[in-house]
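During the second half of the funding period, the structural biology subgroup turned its attention to how the target accommodates small molecules. The most pressing case was iron/sulfur cluster, which had performed well in the primary screen but for which no bound structure existed. We therefore specified the complex as follows and requested a full 3D prediction, including the ligand pose.
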Amino acid sequence: MRQDSELALSHDTLAPAQLPDDTKDLPRHPWDDDKLHEECGVFGVIGVTDASNFVALGLHALQHRGQEAGGIVCHRPDHGFNSARRFGYVRDNFTSQDVMETLPGPLAIGHVRYSTTGSKGSTAIRDVQPFFGEFSMGGAALAHNGNITNADALRRELIERGSIFQSSSDSECIIHLMARSLQKDIPDRMEDALRRVEGAFSVVAMTRTKLIGVRDPLGVRPLVLGKVADGWCLSSETCALDIIGAEFVREVEPGEMVVITDQGVDSRFPFRRRNSRFCIFEHVYFSRPDSIIGGRSVYETRRQIGVELAREAPVEADLVCPVPDSGTPAAIGFSQESGIPYAMGIIRNQYMGRTFIEPTEQIRNMGVRLKLNVNRALIKGKRVILVDDSVVRGTTSRKIKEMILDAGAAEVHFRIASPPTAWPCFYGVDTPQREKLLAATMSEEEMREHLAVDSLKFISLDGLYRAVGEAEGRKDDCPQFCDACFSGEYPVEPSDMIEKGFELKAAE
Ligand code: SF4
């Protein structure tokens, strides 16, 4: 199978091909470094005419989970497997008739990527998923959301035993582990492979006749099952079911594998059962506010975070303003609970694209101002509460504060809809090294001084748990979610990182 950005036409007996060492720089916005980044999005459909069109729409709805690149693999019995993998947005790559006509068939999967492993910034096309493997019983393609925490060790072992890797992505380990399995069919090989894998994974895969979805035993990353016409679909989030008119059926459970054929959905649990530890940051920031997670509206959870924040950290002020867009529901909740008027004090330029900032360093240095502008008439002379989703490095928060003061605000108070982010994520979210995280090196008061604001308060971990529906807060002896980036308590030991010198939090 040709794995370049052109369509790869082939039949079921695809052979590994020469891979171009094609790279392309995709510069990031200056403020990109001051946000945690969504990991990836996965989507798959079986049993509909032209499944790739559905997948393209699904990936478009999941674009917030990864903007660097995307790919689709499909299968039609008389055409075999076909694929297209491209840099950039889904809307720019998977909307033209020329491309979509080359992706025929009733079965397709896709992936949008924001590199959390493999090459970053200067992305190689060979790292763009889905990945494909040819096995004696036929081909299989696979798209992975998450991060394998023992990928380095697995890769070393596999290479020593003869595997030839074609990408720098951790996800390719799964294909090679499947190749070494002695099981007779692909779902069983996938089970074998995933039992060797540690970390977080929501996988959507396909064979010639099957659509497969798997979540890791802790269910760190999301995956949902939907029904569309006579077929079925799998998606990272429910918002992508809506766009294709699919009906939400249920979440794939932590540790569950679903194998979907024209006979229906077969469910199995190949891993040792464990308590679920879903990523709590999906509720705060990563997922789209119109998605439903664990039966709860993401928008409503974020609004409730604002309510909790107003109860925990009240302050006298004239206006509550969100830092757009992800701070908006929490700002609404804060305003409702505090009775302080909500206002759009910061306006986001919706049409700011990557390409605009490429030409000159001077424009790049304008940073936040390219994307956000202060509503001066509203802000002048006011005591302003700014509600943001998180503080990572703090550079964006400082610039926003300066913009608000330049516009004549009398006071600036930051309220943050997540606890201090003091630890990196190793489960598929792009976080800076620990020493670059403001909260890793400073107390809350030191951060307030550093940002030079009148007050700074973060929601407590218990407050966040209450907002996501855990009335009693966090159970410290058995936490209900993954919250490692706040607590430093990693539910899966990040063994590769420990080998590289990462120090876990000392026992208290
Ligand atoms: S460490 Fe944070 S971002 Fe990563 S999975 Fe856990 S809660 Fe989510």
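Two results from this model are relevant to the next phase. The radius of gyration is 23 Å. Residues 1-32, 354-359 have pLDDT under 50 and may be disordered.
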